[in-house]
Amino acid sequence: MKLVPFNSDSKSEPNSSSPPWQDMFRSASIRKPETNDAPPLKPDAPPQQYGGNSLSNDPQVRLALYITMAHAGLAFTIFVLYGVCKLLEDFLRPILWAVLCSIPLRGIQQTLVEFWSEPLKLGLTETVLAVPGAIMGPLMTTVVTALKDLYVEFVLELPKEKIN
């Protein structure tokens, strides 16, 4: 990539209306590419014809067709959405209530799935014992903590203030 020389004429003028960055962009847009792969056109040659009477090779016609297809797709999408809304018009309130009620229940559902997924994978016995096991785990922790406190208080005869 070649460096574009800076135009020093604009620097010499004190009231220059174009700052140096505009000169840089202007010179980059005017510069021609270094290599040209296309064969040079003869000045006497007539303009290139686009395949007979077919207009699909003309870039302007293609652009117009693309824009037309985009507008047709947009109109079809709006028409389908309008039809779906008219079809579900009577069910709109129940659907909205279902969505509103499902939002707070999502956390409960995730907790239940998290709790039951492991026992259900392990088998019938673990599934049956899951709820008693869930109850007994914290209960046993509480009993063990209470027994430890009793042991420290009565057997070792240490007051609670010294423990903490």
TrEMBL record:
The keyword Transmembrane helix applies. It is a multi-pass membrane protein. GO terms for cellular component: membrane. InterPro entries: AI-2E-like. Keywords: Membrane, Transmembrane, Transmembrane helix. The chain crosses the membrane at residues 63-84. The keyword Transmembrane applies. Residues 1-53 are annotated as: Disordered. It is found in: Membrane. PANTHER family: TRANSMEMBRANE PROTEIN (PTHR21716), TRANSMEMBRANE PROTEIN C9ORF5 PROTEIN (PTHR21716:SF72). Belongs to the autoinducer-2 exporter (AI-2E) (TC 2.A.86) family. This is Transmembrane 245-like.
